[in-house]
Each structure stands twice: as C-alpha cells, then as structure tokens.
C-alpha cells in the first residue's frame, strides 16, 4: 500500500519509472557476473578490401547471452555498462581477448600477416588518463605488431573531452595503433578538430550506406566522406553493406573497405577462419 509522502521528501510516484530503475540495477548486476560466468564473448565481422574482395581485417563485437534475458544487444547493454563504469573492466577484457585471438590466428596462419583487428572503445575508456599507456604496454607484451590493432571511437566519444582524447590518440597513433572514427557523419565533430586528430580511418555510418542506392543525397554524403577522408589521408570503411548495388556504387566512389551482411554477419572465431579461407584461398 502506498503511503502519502512526507512534506519535503521525494518519492517516486511513477510505477513505470520505479520499475525501470529496478530493471536497470538488475541488468547492471547481471552484467557484472556475466563475465565471470562466461556469458560474454566476441564475434568478428570481416572487413573486405573492395578492390580485390579479400578479407583484410575484422571488427570485434561484444555479445552477451544471459541465461535470464537471452540475447541482449550491445546497443542496450553497452550504455548500461558505461553508466555504471563497468565498461572499463569489460573494455579491457575485449582488448585482451581480441589480441589473444589475433595472435592465435596469426600463429595458425589462418589470416594474412598484415591482418588488422578493430575493437570498439567507449568514451569512458578513452577518458581514463592511463588508457593509451595501458594499451601500448599490453600490445608490447603481445607478439603483434602495433599496426595489427585499431580502435574505433565515435565522434561523441571524442567530443566529451577533446583535449584528453587528443593526447591519448596522439600517443596511440605514435605507437602505430590505428584510429577509426565510427559512425562517421552522425556526430558533431568539426572539420577543424578532425584535422588535428591522428585519424587513420573514417567509417561511413550505415545510415548513409543503407539508402545510398535509392537516395541521391545520401549517396552524395557518402561520396563527401570519401573525398574528405582522402584530403585527411585516411582510409574509408563503409559499414552496413547489404546489397550488391551498394558495393558497385562504393567501388566507383573509391571507398577502400566494406563491411556488412552482404559479405558476412559477425562470426564466431571458428566460422571466421572458415570464411577467411573461403574468400582468400
Ligand atoms: P558499431 O561499432 O557501429 O558496429 C556495427 C554494428 O552494425 C554491429 O552491431 C554489427 O553487427 C551491425 N552490422 C554489421 N553489418 C550490418 C549490416 O549489413 N546491416 C545492419 N543493419 N547492421 C550491420 P552490434 O554488434 O549489435 O553492435 C552495436 C553497437 O554496440 C556497435 O556499433 C558498438 O557501438 C557497440 N559495441 C559492440 N561491441 C562493443 C564493445 O566491445 N565495446 C564497445 N564500447 N561498444 C561495443
Ligand atoms: Mg564499431
Ligand atoms: Mg559503426
Ligand atoms: Mg553504431
């Protein structure tokens, strides 16, 4: 039974809100134990060279299959982990696992020697002052050349603390680690800032790619990103490629790499190796 609130105290009258808060803390708690209980794993989506259609890299994507909730999308649980700070621990696990995986693939000869793996890095990770140092040290303790690792950061991730982001990105880039701007074109980064950043890849957001064969403006925007990348000396990766029409357009536009369901969904490590071998011979 609900009691009336005392004057000057705050109460939550909104049952839906209360429920949401409960659910949120419940999710947070579940996510916290997920790592220990092996409910988290990485899948890898191939990145294809558009000229030869060879697999030249992969994006590592985090998956959570919970006994309680089933499959939970990273679009839902990453923001939860960011809000609790758990993304820091989770993010290091992702980096460690992706590095271990690539070492193993290279040792087996399952991927080409110049293969690159990209990991997504959340704003909060980038805002930890020791992030770049930690990553460089971790990589130095591996058998990978620094160029084998790329981080994907979003524009909003960079904008949260431009100065600190720039210091860390400069460190990472100087060590040879690739820097990709993810979902490019959907954030607010200014061209002036972009010029000062040691960016090596622009990833054209799938929103533009999705409609590029039907919408002239989206096609124009995708082309503009490719032009801009060339001016900045960056590569371009188109994400969310689902149809051959998009591939044909991207090829004429001079895009470098493509990623999307047309080629392959994200795959578990075994399936990834099979795909690589079937494509690269
Ligand atoms: P993102 O980094 O932009 O990743 C691309 C998303 O597009 C992935 O969704 C991928 O599965 C999906 N995708 C790939 N090809 C296609 C396609 O052809 N069509 C469509 N419609 N979608 C495609 P996913 O795996 O659900 O991840 C969603 C987002 O969650 C990621 O977006 C990234 O921002 C975040 N995320 C995933 N793993 C991690 C992680 O380890 N750390 C962090 N911080 N964020 C992560
Ligand atoms: Mg990404
Ligand atoms: Mg993206
Ligand atoms: Mg995205």
Automatic annotation (TrEMBL):
Source taxon at top rank: Bacteria
Can you tell me where the transmembrane regions are?
A: none
* Coiled-coil residue windows: none
Q: Taking every annotated instance into account, which residue ranges of this chain make up the domain EAL?
A: 24-280
Originating organism: Oceanimonas pelagia
Q: What is this protein called?
A: EAL domain-containing protein
